[in-house]
Amino acid sequence: MLASELALQLFRDVRASASMLFRPGHNAVVCDNIAPETVADALLELLFPGSAPRETGRGALTFTARDGQSFRVLRDFSSDMGQLQTLNAVSKQFAPVSEGLANVSKAMRHYVGPAPRDAVVATFVLQPNDLPGVASAEADSPAARERLRVLETKLASYQRINQLDGEIHELNRRKSAAEDIAKRLTGDASSVRQAEAEFAHFAHLSVLADSFVSDYSEMTSKEAQRNADLKQIDNERTELERLLRAADASPLFKDARVISGLLVGVATIATGLTLGGSYRLLAFLDVPAFGLVTWALWQNLGHRDEVGGAKKRIAQLEQRKAQISVRDSDAIARVRSQASLVGLSSLTEVREVIAARAAAKKTLADVQEAFVQQQANPELTRAHKEVSELKRTIAHYEQERSDAGVTGGDAGAIMAEVTTLRRLLGVAAPSAGDELKRALVPMRFLGAKSAEVALAVSERASQIVATLSGGRLTRVDVDIDGTIYAMTGSTRGPASGLSPLARSLVVLALRAAIILALPHTARLPVVVHPVTVPIENGEAVLRAFASVLAQGGVQVVQLVRTQAHAQGVPNVVRAA
Predict the structure, then answer these.
(1) Is the Cβ–Cβ distance between 546 and 529 less than 8 Å?
(2) Sorting pLDDT into bands at 50, 70 and 90, what band is 49?
(3) Can you say whether the dihedral through the CA atoms of 441, 444, 448, 453 is positive or negative?
(4) Domains of the chain by range and CATH?
(5) Can you tell me the distance from the alpha carbon of 195 to that of 566, in angstroms, rounded to the nearest whole number?
(6) What is the pLDDT of residues 402-446, one digit of tens each?
(7) Please, which residues bridge with residue 6 across strands?
């Protein structure tokens, strides 16, 4: 989850409303007028509604859940009143989804996680007592104590080498057994290779898509339709040309019917007028003569219109024929070109070849799927995973053994001298401090203890401690039994023998390594209290610790007492 805003009112020593706006990454809260514990306790009380109220007042926390949904939890710290609200994506307003402290607490478990409050505090809250205190006074014999420290470090190396020899022998035995199981369960890939070879015969058809059959069929249909349209146009043009040849397209007044009709009509009129008398009746014969002329003229004009229409239609047909001739020519040419590349010239051939390729492709897919399923055998997967983990662990142990750089020939003499020095100085064997033991508590979030988990945490912590120490500390190792070792330069020994500053750096590196090893969905905002123990450059060390987490995608809320302590932090807010 990602906290975006914390609002407090009348909480412990606050007598007015205080609102803090958080952002992803590194945040610093300047607590010059409010105790840092107030802000930290407010976050915990809001993340864990239902805990025994220790303060009076009210608070609100706005956060974004793992699924991207925004929520706001409201809490009255002095009663069982509480409310969980969700942001409406349309109205951009918060609306209640749970009422009552019990319901809110149950709902928040889904977003915070099922871990108890003390486990979350041990992981995501860096408190002052998590770091070593003031170094104890030096012994009266610095030289003897230094000699004892050197011998104890060397003795620890001998003991560790003996332990590593036994562990490496056992790990090699387990690796051999796991490799035998993996070899027995690994399937034969010859059937896959044979199917791949058969499918390779159709490699020259790679230019053809699976839909080429439909493309070729569509092309032949378009080509047939185009040819049919062109043939229809040719037939129509032939009929029109026959009509033009049959039509009489002579000039109007060269028609014999027109000339004869005019002559007869004029002659009858002239004869009737010339002869006179009853012969004048002959003039009425001009009516049928001129009727013949009229009918002939009308017929010739009709033929002329019909011929003109036929010529116009022929021109239209020529234009349409030109358009149809180029219709779909690009698509037809493209399909024919693809078919010619692979030597196909008919729809039947295309169907047969594409079907054969599809069958070979399906056979290959089926064989590959069967092989993958065989490889996905849970027992085989476990065997491969175990072999891989054992190889990494063996390599790490062998590297650790090589880095030790000692032999076991004089271990007895060293042990005798260590015993003598301890008796003279009155000290017991060094043991890890409480802060080192607490540093490993968050590892419960990483699941069961295993060499793989310890190795992963050690590798990440080594990188971080080198950054925090400026290279003075080069490695941190967590043994599977919980023992913490540190390396300064080329010297490796128990971390409990380091100075308070060095132990603090080890604690911070382990805490950061464990948090960064968690899945993003399991991370909560990390709260960093101000340092209270006298550690050199304590605030700068905490800023570097918070910066490492922020760079790893963790939201950090660092509580500082003054504005100067927040120097270099990207987002700085005041608590009051």
Answers:
(1) no
(2) confident
(3) negative
(4) 2-18+35-115 (no CATH), 209-341 (1.10.287)
(5) 66
(6) 776 655 445 555 665 666 666 556 554 444 456 777 777 777 777
(7) 20, 61
